[in-house]
Amino acid sequence: MEQQKHAATLGMWLFLGTEIMFFGGMFCAYLIYRYWYFNEFAASSRTLDIWLGTINTAVLICSSLTVALAVRATQMGRRKLTVLLLLATLVFGLAFLGIKGVEWYDKFEEHHIPGASFHFEAAVPQHPGLKIDPQHAQIFFSLYFAMTGMHALHMIIGVGLFAVLTFYAWRGRYGPDYYTPLENAGLYWHFVDIIWIYLFPLLYLIDRKK
Amino acid sequence: MSEHILPIRLYVTIWAALLCLTVITAAVAFVDLGAFNTVVALVIASAKALLVVLFFMHVKYTSEKMTKVVFVAALFWLLILLTLSLADYTTRLWS
C-alpha cells in the first residue's frame, strides 16, 4: 500500500512536469511577442481589469488553503470537516470562473476578442500622437484568451474532479489510511493556482506603468 | 508520503503571506519603477509559487526524494526552453 501511494504521487508529479512544459510553451510565446510588440502589449494589457484580476488571485489562494486544509482534515480522519472544506473549495473555484467570465464578457462587449469584429484603438504609451498597430494588439488578446482559457479549462476539470471527490469523501471513502486521490487532486489544484500566480503579473501588472 | 500532520497555524500563515504578497504586487504595479516593475512582479510571483510548492504541496516535508528530482528537472527543462528561445529572439537584430 505504501509503495502504491508513493508511485501514485510520483506519477502526479510527473504529470505536473508535463503540464509545466505545456504552459511553458505559451509563456515563452508571450515573452517573445511582448519583446517584439512592446507598445501594443503595454496598451492592450492596460485594458484588463486589475481589480478583478487581483480579486481572482485572492479567491484562488483561498481555494488552495481550503484544499490543503481538506487534505489535513482527512489525515486526521475528520470526515465532516473534509466535506465542508471541499465544498468551500468548489465555491471558490466556481467564483473564480464566474469572475473570469465577467472579464471575458467585458472583452466581448469591447470587441477585444480576436477575429473579424476585433477593434482596438490606442496610442503608444507616453507618445499620444502615435497610434499602435491593432494587428499586434490582436496577438496580445489571442495569447490572453489562449492562456486564461487553458487555465480556466484546467479550473473546470479541477472543479469536476473535486465534485466527485467531495461525494466520495461524504460517503466516507477516505481516511487517515487512504487519502491518495485527495492528496493528488490537491497537488493538481495547487499547480493550477501557481499558473495563475504567474499569469496575473504577466498579463495584468507589468505594463501598467510604462 | 507526508504522514506527519502539519499544524493548522502554518497553513494559515502561508495563506496570509500569499494574500499580502498579492496586495503588494498589485500596489507596486501603480508605481513607476521603469524596468524594475517587471522584475519586482516576477520576483514576488516566484516567492508566492515557492510558498505554495514548499508548504501547500508539502515538498519541504516530504521524505520522498524523487518528488524533488522531478520538480527540479521540470524547472530545469522550462529554463532551457525559455533561455534558449529568448537568447535567439533577443539577439536577432544584433548583426
Short description:
Chain A has 210 residues and is mostly helical. Helix content of chain A is 78%, strand content 3%.
Give a description of the structure:
The complex is a heterodimer of chains A (210) and B (95). Chain A has 210 residues and is mainly alpha-helical. Chain A has 6 helices and 2 strands; from the N terminus they run ααααββαα. Chain A has a two-stranded antiparallel ribbon with strand order 1-2. In chain A, helix 1 packs across helix 2 (38-45), helix 1 (2-36) runs parallel beside helix 6 and helix 2 crosses helix 5. Chain A is elongated and about 65 Å long. The model of chain A has no long low-confidence stretch (mean pLDDT 94). Chain B is 71% helix and 0% strand. In chain B, helix 1 (8-28) packs antiparallel against helix 2. The model of chain B has no long low-confidence stretch (mean pLDDT 91). The interface between A and B is large, with 51 and 49 residues.
The number of distinct structural domains of chain B comes to 2
Quaternary structure of the protein: heterodimer
Order of helices and strands of chain B: HHH
How much helix is in the residues of chain A?
over 70%
> Roughly what is the average pLDDT of chain A, rounded to an integer?
94
Q: In this structure, how is the largest beta sheet of chain A organized?
A: 2 strands, antiparallel
Report low-confidence residues of chain B grouped into runs of 5 or more: none
Order of helices and strands of chain A: HHHHEEHH
Coarse structural class of chain A: mainly alpha
Distinctive features:
heterodimer, A: 210 residues, mainly alpha, Four Helix Bundle (Hemerythrin (Met), subunit A), two-stranded antiparallel sheet, 6 helices, 3% strand, elongated, B: 95 residues, 2 domains, 0% strand
Show the helix and strand layout.
The complex is a heterodimer of chains A (210) and B (95).
Chain A: H1 2-36, H2 38-45, H3 50-75, H4 79-109, E1 123-124, E2 127-131, H5 134-170, H6 180-205
Antiparallel strand pairs in A: 1-2
Helix pairs in contact in A: 1-2, 1-5, 1-6, 2-5, 3-4, 3-6, 4-5, 5-6
Chain B: H1 8-28, H2 36-56, H3 65-89
